Automatic annotation (TrEMBL):
It holds the Pfam family WHD_MalT. SUPFAM superfamilies: P-loop containing nucleoside triphosphate hydrolases (SSF52540), TPR-like (SSF48452). This is Regulatory protein. Residues 277-354 form the MalT-like winged helix domain.
Length: 713
């Protein structure tokens, strides 16, 4: 007699295995709810398809779990976690039918039999089978109890035949059934008609990126206290990639010191490296992997640049593959022309190909391409990375003073200065003038003056015209340096003489001299003269059709108008300046854009629109800091004043301390910032009622109105 008791274990195992195929995993520990995305998915339940597509580690499955847990009470859901084995359409359809039978036990008995009897080597009418199943399912579904079918990790099973089956399934979906798909790769479905009828809701990588608030919530773990700079570094580096932040938390837990690990969020770190290698890179074809390593040296890239860098002609196919398979590719424009890799992904690629002749060859090829396109700043960067300093110096010489003075992004030039030897920097008058201007704009006045004095080595010049031009440029530089040191008389004299002698082609230096004289006039209270100088500067900028200089002229005019109390007209000037910058790349940094944004924020606060003003001041402050522009001082002082008005004095003084720290790091002379910082501090002390302290500090700055008298007005 057969002992049936032994069969019970097998039966239990079979039941467990069956249930496991439809098991919805729990949310991971420390998961941060994504209510903003769930609300969008809720709205999509009125359609047919919820499609969530993004690279590995962006939280697709976790979002699906959260959404299922929060479904309205009348909704049912079935979860199918897919694997590579489900790439066989027959096996997939068996699983699909078994999942549906959990809710409708009588569904598809005959259909299941047909699947069981099919032979893999013989053709099977999948669409006809699906049509019969869907007709039968339509009779079981009830509008009062709709069903959500979740297909998780669809990319693991994806293939041409299965794509075709699911396309048919979606096109004939009965009322009361909605499909949700999570995938790293966009399915090869034709969704135009469904999109047109608003039957599809799509959530992509950009949507799944954590917001700064969500990133902070992920990092807000017991015992992990981070200062604001370290926290900001983590948020920026992660680019909203939740897996990156979780790996940082794991590394911090192992190290036992969260504050010591802001630098741990790099693609080359062990946990992130293993994850990206196992989940992404090792799954790609060998030629695609080679493409990734070859193009990792590029901060941004397009098809033509990739072809030139790699000496090949297949880059368009490679990029098309990467886009289709969601391989950490970040678009940089709406046309889909320029791309970059996610920061942590490029970290890993570069770390695995950091030495040898190959990177040098790639950088030189990229340098030649950028140079041929007139993109000299990027060409110089690649020449430096290739170790060819002479090539870099020659390229720097091709930069115009006008470009430098218009963009005023001195951080770039000063960074190159650290890589170039001094003998190269002083080898030509062109390099001397460029770097003296960069140092002057960065408020490193002694260094600028010392470098400008090197021009005497090239006198007498080969011709009278060249000599006159060189002396005029030296005068313009001397005027800017004198203004930084507070020497108004020398500033006026040098800038005036420079304007008389500078050739027309040096319009950038002429405009800077006009701007300097206009600001000096505002400081002296001569607003009529400032208006005349602003008008001359704007006319010259419009003649040379340079939008950056036009924007700078509008900024100066706005300051003069505000000094006269005309806030609304000043705001109009700011908006006109911003309009001139509309056609410029949003991916590049511009000091004048930062200043306009800061000033617009300031004007809004004068009109009591504090929240809008604060947001703009913070945006302008970020760009000014990236440009290494002295206007960061204004930004921090404005934020400090806002914090003081709100009674948050500790935060206000912290803003001033940060401003002073930056001035020290950038080697800015105290005359630039000490008076402004002291004045804001005194205003804060007065608001706190600390009149004696405010009076003592103001007296150090020179005679003026008694703070006690000011406080009683």
């Amino acid at each position: 007699m057969t002992d049936l008791s032994r069969m019970q274990g097998f039966a239990d195992s079979a039941i467990s295995a069956l249930e496991g195929r439809f098991f919805r995993p729990p949310l991971p520990e420390g998961y941060v709810l994504r209510s903003r995305l769930c609300q969008r998915l809720d709205a999509g339940l009125s359609g047919r398809l919820l499609l969530v597509c993004a690279p590995a580690g962006f939280g697709k499955s976790s979002l699906a779990v959260e959404f299922c847990q929060g479904l309205p009470g009348q909704w049912q859901n079935v979860w199918l976690g897919l694997s590579a084995r489900d790439g066989d359409p027959g096996r997939f359809l068996e699983r699909l039918l078994a999942g549906l039978q959990q809710f409708f036990p009588q569904l598809g008995a005959q259909a299941m039999g047909l699947l069981k009897m099919r032979q893999r080597h013989q053709p099977f009418a999948l669409e006809e089978w699906l049509e019969g199943l869907l007709d039968e399912l339509a009779m079981h579904l009830m509008l009062s109890k709709p069903l959500l079918l979740v297909l998780d990790d669809y990319h693991l099973a994806q293939g041409p035949v299965l794509d075709r089956c699911l396309q048919f399934f979606l096109n004939h979906l009965p009322v009361g059934l909605v499909v949700m798909v999570t995938s790293r790769q966009r399915p090869d479905w034709h969704l135009a008609r469904l999109r047109l009828s608003r039957q599809v809701l799509e959530i992509g990588e950009q949507d799944l990126r954590l917001t700064p608030a969500e990133s902070i919530a992920v990092l807000d773990q017991p015992g992990r206290s981070l200062d604001s700079e370290a926290l900001q570094s983590l948020i920026v580096r992660s680019e909203g990639w939740v897996a990156g932040l979780r790996f940082w938390l794991l590394a911090a837990a192992e190290a036992g010191d969260g504050n010591a690990l802001p630098q741990a969020l790099r693609g080359s770190e062990a946990l992130i490296r293993e994850y990206l290698l196992e989940e992404v890179i090792d799954c790609l074809p060998a030629d695609v992997q080679a493409f990734l390593y070859d193009t990792a040296c590029l901060e941004r890239f397009c098809v033509e640049l990739c072809d030139a860098t790699r000496d090949s002609h297949d880059s368009e196919d490679m990029l098309r593959y990467l886009k289709a398979h969601q391989v950490f590719l970040v678009p940089l424009d709406e046309q889909g022309h320029w791309f970059r890799y996610h920061h942590l992904f490029s970290d890993l690629l570069r770390a695995r190909q950091a030495s040898g002749p190959q990177p040098t060859r790639l950088h030189l090829n990229a340098c030649r391409w950028f140079s041929a396109k007139g993109l000299l700043d990027e060409a110089v960067e690649h020449a430096l990375r290739a170790g060819h300093l002479d090539v870099a110096a020659n390229l720097v010489q091709n930069l115009s003073e006008e470009q430098l003075l218009a963009e005023q992004n001195v951080g770039m030039l000063l960074r190159w200065k650290m890589d170039l030897p001094d003998d190269l920097l002083t080898s030509t008058p062109r390099l001397i003038v460029l770097y003296a201007w960069a140092l002057g704009l960065a408020c490193q006045l002694d260094a600028a003056e010392e470098l400008a004095s090197q021009l005497s080595r090239f006198l007498p010049a080969p011709s009278a015209t060249a000599q006159k031009s060189m002396l005029a440029q030296w005068l313009a530089l001397s005027g800017i340096i004198a203004r930084g040191r507070g020497d108004s008389e020398k500033t006026e004299r040098c800038c005036r003489e420079a304007l008389l002698t500078l050739p027309e082609k040096r319009y950038g230096q002429r405009l800077v001299c006009l701007s300097t004289l206009a600001n000096l006039a505002i400081a002296n209270g001569d607003l009529w003269r400032a208006k005349v100088l602003n008008r001359d500067a704007l006319e010259l900028a419009q003649r040379v059709a340079n939008p950056l200089f036009e924007a700078l002229a509008h900024y100066d005019r706005a300051r003069a108008l505000q000094a006269r109390g005309e806030i609304i007209r000043a705001m109009e000037e700011v908006r006109q300046g911003q309009q001139r910058l509309k056609g410029l790349s949003s991916g590049r940094l511009y000091a004048v854009r930062a200043r306009l944004t800061l000033y617009e924020g300031y004007l809004l606060t004068l009109r009591l629109q504090v929240d809008e003003g604060r947001a703009l001041v913070l945006a302008g402050l970020a760009e000014a800091r990236a440009c290494r522009d002295i206007s960061v001082l204004i930004g921090h002082c404005l934020i400090a004043t806002m914090e003081g008005c709100a009674g948050r004095f500790a935060e206000a003084f912290a803003q001033l301390a940060e401003a002073e720290r930056l001035m020290h790091i950038w080697d800015v002379p105290p005359i630039y910032y000490l008076g402004m910082l002291t004045l804001v501090k005194c205003e804060l002390w007065l608001a706190q009622g600390r009149i004696d302290l405010a009076e003592a500090w103001l007296l150090r700055c020179g005679p003026g109105v008694s703070p006690a008298a000011a406080a009683t007005r």
